[in-house]
Amino acid sequence: MKIFITLGILLFTTLNTYASKELKTHICQACHPKIYKEYQSSMHAKASIYKNEIFRAVWEKHPLSKTNNFKCAKCHTPSDKKLISGETKLSKNSIQLHEPISCQYCHQIKSIEEHAKSNTNIQITQKKTIFARNIDKKGQMLEFKPQSSLTKMVGSPYHDINYSNENYYNGNMCLGCHSHKQNDHGFKVCDFEIKKGKSDFKENCITCHMPQVSGSFVNHKDTKTHAFHGATALIDKPFLLSKHVKLSLEKGNKNFVITVKNGSNHTLTPHPLRLSKLKVSLQREDKIIELKDVIFIKVIGKDGKPTMPWIADEIITDKTIKAFEKRELKFNKELKSGDIVTVRFGYHIVNPQIAKKLQLKEKRLSKFITLTRKIFKIQD
Ligand code: HEC
Ligand code: HEC
Ligand code: HEC
Ligand code: HEC
Ligand code: HEC
């Protein structure tokens, strides 16, 4: 009973605000509290310089920051509409602090326009309609139908739902921001190098990064699970992604080979700030021998030297693991029966050398984080 009264009050208050012409993120919270909570700890809710110290450190070094010309808003804070339209300059307002990429921004991406410099999101013009992915309802449009009981009502009293946008089924709705970005020299400073495959529908950006986790997606129904909204691949929950990078070991005569298999359709740690590594240690009787780390890095720069992204016009080295690649790494060490080999694949969110240059002192930003680990017991 109590829960129904609370829901009734919530519904009443939201219906009152229903009169507003646009959807508002803080109102989604009333009916989708679990998703709202996850979202708040995601990088999408923290994509502004006021919430992300790494981004702030880079922005403060960027030449555009001298004139406060925050072009980064296109992808980092598109919900600050006054800033986007040029009406205001970058300032610490509540959109920047709480919803730089808001719920409705993502749920109202109608299509993606492809450009060389960076892609562009085209928003739907019907301000109260959102897009969603639901295989059982694909192609439908769901409008609100009140019923005698809240748990039986159909649709949402706050928004209409359009289930027919293909971009929400194949993951393309992420690619307005997550595909590539060129600097003013026409050089791609960031490139996910996405490879489209036949299985895009089954496994894509959305299925891997927004897996179903426990808890209903909406108050009024008990759906058991909901799509994870805490997109923080690297910092918070790397284990959600571990299974997509597979490690195997093959013993040779005087050596052994470790294979890293990237199951994803993009380069691993494509961002030029990151550094991924393979760490191998060998336990033989009581001794632990650490083998030399293998690093997978992309260095960009000019005239053969590493530089900040806005100066770069060439790739100096690129050892990153590409989409669906199987990378074989040979170790010149003979393995013996009884050896235990521990293999870890992971990354530094900020390459420790770059962290120094950016004066990012907090350890958690540049320490090694394990994405996946496997232990091999060697037997003859
Ligand atoms: C007054 C309550 C209420 C508010 C406020 C609300 N929603 Fe909903 N929403 C619902 C209900 C109820 C459903 C389920 C409709 C159904 O399946 O019949 C739903 C469904 C959805 C779905 C589709 C789920 C699916 O896969 O079927 C999405 C996406 C969604 N809401 C997003 C949002 C966003 C974004 C906001 C804020 C801008 C928001 N909602 C605000 C009640 C609400
Ligand atoms: C085309 C869209 C786009 C534009 C424009 C853009 N970025 Fe980004 N940026 C992204 C995406 C997407 C990510 C997340 C990528 C990842 O984690 O691999 C990101 C991540 C970053 C990061 C890493 C943050 C972290 O937490 O590690 C920095 C730093 C950054 N961007 C700086 C900038 C600056 C400075 C500008 C403006 C001069 C800018 N970006 C403009 C899309 C963009
Ligand atoms: C409006 C642009 C935009 C859209 C659309 C968008 N993202 Fe992002 N995303 C960003 C930016 C910008 C960042 C980096 C924020 C930062 O670090 O400051 C980011 C960060 C992330 C991260 C965290 C990366 C890390 O370093 O931990 C993941 C994972 C992610 N996005 C996945 C997705 C997926 C999956 C989709 C589609 C469902 C999506 N994003 C849609 C802009 C966007
Ligand atoms: C980065 C883009 C992005 C942002 C930001 C975002 N969503 Fe979503 N949301 C999606 C995508 C894509 C799906 C489809 C996932 C699926 O069904 O597998 C989804 C699914 C949903 C669903 C249905 C969940 C389910 O399990 O079927 C609801 C409800 C929802 N979102 C509400 C919200 C609310 C509320 C917010 C803000 C607090 C929000 N979303 C922010 C992209 C986003
Ligand atoms: C098969 C699963 C899978 C698919 C499909 C997938 N990813 Fe990932 N993604 C991963 C794994 C595993 C990582 C962690 C390793 C890494 O950082 O690259 C990751 C990392 C990321 C990061 C953080 C990278 C960084 O360096 O900051 C972003 C952002 C991201 N993915 C976005 C996307 C987008 C956008 C798509 C759709 C084009 C996508 N992913 C498709 C598994 C997947």
General description of the model:
By secondary structure, this protein is of the alpha+beta class. The chain has 2 domains: about 1-45 and about 100-225, no CATH class; about 240-375, Immunoglobulins (Immunoglobulin-like). It has helices at about 1-15, 25-30, 35-40, 55-60, 75, 80-85, 95-100, 105, 165-170, 205-210, 350-355, 365, and strands at about 110-115, 120-125, 130, 140, 160, 180, 190, 210-215, 225, 245-250, 255-260, 275-285, 285-290, 295, 300, 305, 315-320, 325-330, 340-350, 370-375. Strands 12, 13, 14, 19 and 20 form a 5-stranded antiparallel beta sheet that branches. Strands 3-5-4 form a 3-stranded mixed beta sheet, with no helix packed on it. The longest helix has 16 residues, at about 1-15. The model is unreliable at about 1-5 (pLDDT under 50). Bound molecules: heme C (5 copies). One heme C binds near residues 132, 133, 218, 227 and 229.
